[in-house]
Amino acid sequence: MSPAKQKQYRTLLLELRERVGGEVNYVVESIHQDVDINANTSSAPVHLADVAAASVDADVQVLNMERGILDQINAALERVANGTFGRCTSCGAEISELRLKALPYASQCAACARVETDSSR
After folding, report:
1. What pLDDT score does 65 carry?
2. Are 79 and 33 within 8 A, CB to CB?
3. Burial 31-70 (b: 16+ CB within 10 A, else e)
4. What pTM, to 2 d.p., does this model score?
5. How many percent of the chain have pLDDT more than 90?
6. Of the chain's two ends, which shows fewer C-beta atoms within 10 Å, N or C?
7. CA distance linking residue 53 with residue 31, whole number of Å
8. Using H for helix, E for strand and C for coil, what is the string for the chain?
9. Which fold is adopted by the domain 3-39+47-119?
10. Residue 87 pairs with which residues in a beta bridge?
């Protein structure tokens, strides 16, 4: 991949990291609001599990997914920095431009990603 293309992807990845980081912060704030123990007006002791609503569980799932994406974006930025961006981390083949446009933080070519997905089922 040309240095100019890598620079374009670096810029895109930085923008994605900013956006996903903001979403992570938003979800964390939402969880804090949903689990505001100080809002409990009863004098009975409260355990966090008693306060947690179904929405908190959903927020935690979203948070885990967003943090995973953030980790992948940071790993992709490391690959840009060390010159391996655009190469499959499993087989070393070039990752298609189409795949990188759809998933700029992809670390594997479509074939290797498919094999990994099939083996995890």
Report:
1. 85
2. no
3. beebbeeeeeeeeeeeeeeeeeeeebeebeebbeebeebb
4. 0.72
5. 50
6. C
7. 10
8. CCHHHHHHHHHHHHHHHHHHHHHHHHHHHHHHHHCCHHHCCCCCCCCHHHHCCHHHHHHHHHHHHHHHHHHHHHHHHHHHHHCCCCECCCCCCECCHHHHHHCCCCCCCHHHHHHHHHHCC
9. Four Helix Bundle (Hemerythrin (Met), subunit A) (1.20.120)
10. 94
Question: Scanning the structure block, which residue is given the tokens 């670096």?
Answer: 10
pLDDT exceeds cutoff 70 at 37: no
Domains of the chain: which residue ranges?
3-39+47-119
Which residue type sits at 103?
L
Q: What is the pLDDT of residues 56-75, one digit of tens each?
A: 666 677 777 888 999 999 99
